[in-house]
Amino acid sequence: MKYGEESNPLERELRAALGREAPPPGFTERVLRAAADDRERRLAASARRWNWFEWPRVPRAAWAGALCAVLITGVWMEREHQRQVEGEQAKERLMLALRVTGTQLNQVRRLVRETGVNADLAR
Amino acid sequence: MERHQAERDGVPDSDFASLVREHQTMVFSIALHYLGDRSVAEEVAQEVFLQLYRHSGGWDSPEHRTAWLRRVACHRAIDCARSRRLEPRLGLEGLPEPAAVPVSTDPLLGARLRKLIDGLGEKARMVMILRFQEELEPEEIARTLEIPVNTVKSHLQRSLALLREKLGRLNERVESAGERR
User: Against a cut of 0.90, is the pTM above it?
Assistant: First the structure.
């Protein structure tokens, strides 16, 4: 009782009205059966977790389809990567060729300039 | 059996049966007084014990475990009332006056009081149940329902005042009816 200590008639009536009541007969057995069912369900669920391919909700055809999709995507991505690498190599070759051409042009220009200066001096 | 026990990580089976027997009256009564329906209360009590069955333990003492069960029972009952819309639509003031004299020896008084308590709001009703069924102190009720102690005290005071007023009005009506006769 404690809180407020004194108990008036209304509080006594409330205690009587809200007294504990026993559950219906067989309640304990029903709870124990429900707990056993729950345990079985959990065991079955944990067994299913380790046996994905036999999971009845996902048919084998779906797993095969998913596998094919993964393979096709993988092959496509590999090809794309290959094409990208080849493109990079072609670009590198072109840049090298341009550098070589530029160097040769500079040499020719220098030769022409030197030849022109020599001709002026001879005159 | 050992494999089963390891799979579910809960209370051992042997302990579970004795725990159900020990606490079923408390859990069932909380649900019954809150919901006012024996079959729904039985379902709620069963769910509470299943939650106990799956629980991995971690209680310091039997008292701690009892408090845990009480808390789960309260919250389950409140959730159940919300989901099934069993909550009373009327406030305490809106309830019809009972038809007979409330004297302490009246066997109907208990039923009438339960009906009046059904008219309280969800928290106030649970506070009354925990106070007068479980004999908990306001601090324990506050911990169980996760609300401030002052809220518990004000719920108790307001609910008691409303019940007193309601029963007082009823007494006056019946007395005046007797004088007229």
Answer: no
